[in-house]
User: Which sequence fits this backbone?
C-alpha cells in the first residue's frame, strides 16, 4: 500500500521576542498554495501507483493460473498480480473472515456456494471453467502389483495419503471410495493432509505408500507413479468455478481476469496443464 508523502514542512519560528500577525489576505494565499502543492503530490502518487489484483486460487491451479497471472500482469505496466494458493475450503474461510481477495477460484462448487449464500462473491460474475480427474498414485518403493481399487487393501499398503474431508479433492476421493465400498477399510490406513499437493509430496517422499490426487497434480510427481486412474464412469463430479468477490479493491480488473480465464487463451492454458473442459452445468442425478 502506498503512503502519501508529506506536502510541506512547518517553518521555523523566531522565538518569543516578537510575534507578527499575518494579514488575512496573505494567510489565504499561503493556504491556497499549500493546498495546491498537496494536490500535486497526491496526483503524482496516484499516477505512479500500481493496481494490485489479488487472486486466491485452489492449490491444484498453481501452474495455469501462475502462467495466466503473468500474462495478465504483462498487459499493462500499471498492474500487478498477487497470487495466493491453498485448499479451496481454507481460502473460502479466510475470505469470509475479511481476507483481501479480488478473485476466488475454487476446485469445487461447495466452497463457492457457501460464499455466494453469505454475500461474499458476486453471483453474476460466477464462471465454471474446468474439470479434473482423480488418479491413485503409488510410492516408488511399493513394488507389489497395483492396478485397481482393491489393491489399496493389500497388506503392503500400510499408509494411504488423503486430503482432509473438507478439502475438495479429499471429498471427491471419499465419494469414489464410498462408491467402491472401500471407505472404512481405507480410513483405517489413511494419513490426512492439507491438499492434493501435500498428498503428492507425502507419496513422493515415501511417507505414504499410496494416495489419491488430481491427475494434474500427478504430472509433477518426482518419484511417485500413477498406479491407475479412476475410470471415467466412476469419476465424481469435479468442477472448478471462479467469481469476483464483494468488496475487493479491483472489481474491474477482477472481471477482466475472469474473462481471460474463460477465453480461448485461458482454456488453452488449462488444457496444457492437464485440466479437462468444464463439465455440465449441474451433476447428473446418479453422480456420487
Assistant:
Amino acid at each position: 500500500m502506498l503512503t502519501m508523502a508529506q506536502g510541506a514542512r512547518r517553518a521555523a519560528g523566531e522565538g518569543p521576542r516578537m510575534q507578527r500577525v499575518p494579514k488575512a489576505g496573505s494567510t489565504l494565499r499561503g493556504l491556497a498554495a499549500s493546498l495546491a502543492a498537496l494536490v500535486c503530490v497526491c496526483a503524482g502518487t496516484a499516477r505512479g501507483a500500481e493496481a494490485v489484483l489479488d487472486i486466491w486460487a485452489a492449490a491444484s491451479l498453481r501452474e495455469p493460473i501462475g502462467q495466466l497471472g503473468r500474462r495478465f500482469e504483462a498487459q499493462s505496466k500499471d498492474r500487478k498480480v498477487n497470487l495466493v494458493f491453498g485448499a479451496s475450503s481454507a481460502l473460502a474461510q479466510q475470505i469470509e473472515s475479511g481476507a483481501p481477495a479480488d478473485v476466488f477460484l475454487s476446485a469445487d462448487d461447495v466452497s463457492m456456494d457457501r460464499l455466494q449464500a453469505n454475500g461474499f462473491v458476486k453471483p453474476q460474475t460466477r464462471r465454471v471453467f474446468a474439470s479434473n480427474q482423480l488418479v491413485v498414485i503409488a510410492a516408488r518403493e511399493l513394488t507389489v502389483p497395483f492396478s485397481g481399487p482393491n489393491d489399496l487393501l493389500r497388506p503392503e499398503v500400510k499408509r494411504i495419503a488423503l486430503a482432509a474431508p473438507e478439502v475438495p479433492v479429499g471429498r471427491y476421493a471419499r465419494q469414489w471410495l464410498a462408491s467402491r465400498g472401500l471407505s472404512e477399510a481405507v480410513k483405517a490406513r489413511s494419513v490426512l493432509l492439507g491438499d492434493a499437493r501435500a498428498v503428492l509430496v507425502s507419496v513422493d517422499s515415501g511417507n505414504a505408500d499410496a494416495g489419491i490426487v488430481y491427475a494434474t497434480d500427478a504430472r509433477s510427481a518426482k518419484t511417485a507413479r500413477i498406479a491407475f486412474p479412476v475410470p471415467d464412469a466412476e469419476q465424481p463430479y469435479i468442477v472448478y468455478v471462479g467469481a469476483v468477490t464483494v468488496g475487493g479493491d479491483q472489481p474491474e480488473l477482477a472481471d477482466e481476469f475472469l474473462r481471460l480465464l474463460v477465453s480461448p487463451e485461458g482454456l488453452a492454458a488449462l488444457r496444457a496443464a492437464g485440466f479437462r473442459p468444464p463439465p455440465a452445468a449441474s451433476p447428473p442425478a446418479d453422480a456420487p
About this structure: The radius of gyration is 27 Å. The longest helix spans residues 24-48.
